[in-house]
Write a structure and sequence with these properties.
142 residues; Deoxyuridine 5'-Triphosphate Nucleotidohydrolase, Chain A; 4-stranded antiparallel beta sheet; 5% helix
């Protein structure tokens, strides 16, 4: 699948470190400091034309979460197929230390996934299952 894109600089082009990686790395378009206990918007310099029936899913690279205490402020980013603006990523710093993201540093991952457009149908009763309506912690621990 080809994804049309506009990129500020060639080095910001989303890419995979390994051919079998699920996500393509997104890089910071400029140096950004994410201050302790605050959130900051990171520019990627990338605009995409995601095909209809697909969407983009953005998440922070695992190393940034485990090494630096950063997470996406909205947990995960969704890019609709009709969005044509720059991909922006809002990071939250949960630590007591400022974290610097260098220009061109890989900090997030982008996945392009098929979208399913369900029609939600009201009914009076749902089918029975063994779990039923058991929610959080329903399966317990051993």
């Amino acid at each position: 699948m080809n994804i049309n894109m506009i990129v500020n600089r060639a080095e910001l082009t989303p890419s995979r470190a390994h051919p079998t990686d699920a996500g393509s790395d997104l890089k910071s378009a400029n140096e950004v400091v994410v201050k302790a206990h605050s959130k900051t918007t990171i520019n990627t310099g990338v605009k995409l034309e995601i095909p209809k029936s697909y969407y983009g899913l953005v998440n922070i690279r695992s190393g940034f979460g485990t090494k630096f205490g950063l997470r996406m402020a909205n947990t995960v980013g969704i890019i609709d197929s009709d969005y044509r603006g720059e991909i922006l990523v809002i990071l939250q710093n949960d630590t007591d230390f400022d974290v610097t993201i260098e220009e061109n540093e890989r900090f997030a991952q982008l996945l392009i996934l098929p979208d399913i457009y369900p029609k939600f149908v009201p009914v009076k009763k749902l089918t029975e299952t063994k779990r039923g309506s058991g929610g959080f912690g329903h399966t317990g621990t051993k």
